[in-house]
Amino acid sequence: MTAKLDNLQAAVQAALGPKLKSLVRDRGEITVTVAAADYAEVAKTLRDDATLAFEQLIDLCGVDYSEYQNRPWEGLRYAIVTHLLSLRHNWRLRLKVFAPDDDMPAVYSVTELWTSASWFEREAFDMFGIIFEGHLDLRRILTDYGFIGHPMRKDFPVTGHVEMRYDPEKKRVIYQPVSIEPREIVPRVVREDNYGGLH
């Protein structure tokens, strides 16, 4: 496995050169991070370069890094993480890119390179509000058409903004402000002197 990762690392470094912002090798996997301005060109190189040949995009997701690992995050907030597979070489790569603007996160769409990215990008748009420039059908995929906000953002309220219910008088579904009172639940801790037979 080590020789295979060495070969992949060397091939990625040779193909991408200065476009690599970072390359992390951990737990038998390689993660490369590139700038948003280079994302489209890097993705095309990863697919078309014969020494890499990442023909398949197997996953793409959004990440909100605010308060990453329960600590304040220094740097850009939103990232796209793409998992690529090369059937020819039987290896995998994780490609990460950060959206350069936290207020309006946007990166290039890779649907022209891998059609499987289409629904993944729609999901990241719906859940995180990340815009994919060049996507031909960027609309919500999991939430309702009238949904307000992006539920996987860490600042999105757990209760949401509105609730929907069926109104038997109006004979239709209606939206209304959330009626749930937010509260903090603290679990009950048993503290007995002789709990578990200990003295």
Distance between the termini: 51 Å
Q: Report the radius of gyration as a whole number of Å.
A: 22 Å
Q: Report the major sheet.
A: 5 strands, mixed
CATH topology, by name, is Beta Polymerase, domain 2
H/E element order:
HEEHEEEEHEEE
Strand order of the largest sheet: 1-2-5-4-3
Name the CATH superfamily classification.
NADH:ubiquinone oxidoreductase Nqo5 subunit
Q: What do the pLDDT scores average to?
A: 90
Strand residue content: 25-35%
CATH class: Alpha Beta
The structural domain count equals 1
Q: Please identify the structural class as seen in this structure.
A: alpha/beta
Instruction: Name the helicity range.
Output: 10-25%
Could you give the count of β-strands? 9
Reported CATH architecture: 2-Layer Sandwich
Number of helices: 3
Give the low-confidence spans. Answer: none
Protein model, in words:
By secondary structure, this protein is an alpha/beta fold. It has a single domain, classed as NADH:ubiquinone oxidoreductase Nqo5 subunit (Beta Polymerase, domain 2), CATH 3.30.460. 19% of the residues lie in helices and 29% in strands. The strands form 3 sheets. It has a 5-stranded mixed sheet with strand order 1-2-5-4-3. Strands 6-7 form a two-stranded parallel ribbon. The mean pLDDT is 90.
